[in-house]
Design a protein that fits this description.
Elements: E1 7-14, H1 21-24, H2 38-41, H3 44-47, E2 70-73, H4 85-93, E3 97-100, H5 105-113, E4 117-120, H6 123-135, E5 140-144, E6 149-152, E7 156-159, H7 164-172, H8 176-182, H9 184-197
Parallel strand pairs: 1-2, 2-3, 3-4
Antiparallel strand pairs: 1-5, 5-6, 6-7
Length: 205
């Protein structure tokens, strides 16, 4: 996982509430153990017709979505069953952050572990962002995880919450195992000291 650095990007609006993980990545695609091709299967049932042709009116098939790294979603995004393939598909498409008023807890956790930043905003800010994107499709926002802030044109700036552990892992480009490995010397020292204090021959109480 690469280090999460501040970036500027256009925004892809998807004003649909309660988008579940089966809509993000249908269950029939969960057999894969790699991320290859998941970008093409993202929102598959919304994105293609019965013959597999892209639907021109779906937002991800429009030119404005190409190269965009921020998805502006409706409320309760990522509800439904747990599957890491959902953030995988989003990041494979190129998204680095999703903005919503709320996320399902499991999806939020899976996203943070896989390099996708879920940004929770107020309903007022949410509405302002949709208005901004509607007025100017090319408008870009700046996402800065280090300062936990988003800056948009027109003087719009807001901060967002993220837990300290997830923030550290994202900024350093490591997962939970990588974080543990960083403290390998301290772990060995603790284990060595702990072993010396244990009497394994003593009868249990």
């Amino acid at each position: 996982m690469s280090q999460f650095e501040a970036f500027s990007s256009r925004v892809v609006p998807m004003p649909v509430d309660n988008v579940d993980t089966d809509q993000i990545i249908p269950a029939r695609f969960l057999k894969t153990t790699t991320k290859d091709g998941l970008d093409k299967q993202l929102f598959c049932d919304w994105r293609y017709d019965a013959d597999g042709a892209p639907k021109p009116d779906f937002i991800l098939n429009q030119p404005r979505a190409r190269g965009a790294a921020v998805l502006l979603a409706g409320g309760n995004f990522g509800c439904g069953s747990s599957r890491e393939h959902a953030p995988w598909a989003l990041t494979q498409f190129g998204f680095r952050a999703v903005i919503s008023t709320s996320f399902a807890d499991i999806f939020k956790g899976n996203s943070l572990k896989n390099g996708l930043l879920p940004i929770v905003v107020s309903r007022e800010t949410h509405a302002k962002l949709f208005e901004l994107v509607a007025a100017d499709e090319s408008a870009e926002i700046v996402v800065d995880l280090a300062s936990q802030s988003v800056t948009a044109p027109g003087g719009v700036r807001f901060e967002f919450p993220v837990d300290a552990f997830s923030k550290t892992c994202l900024l350093e480009g490591i997962d939970e195992l990588g974080y543990i490995q960083k403290h390998e010397e301290q772990i060995r020292a603790f284990e060595a000291a702990r072993t010396g204090t244990l009497n394994t021959l003593a009868p249990s109480a």
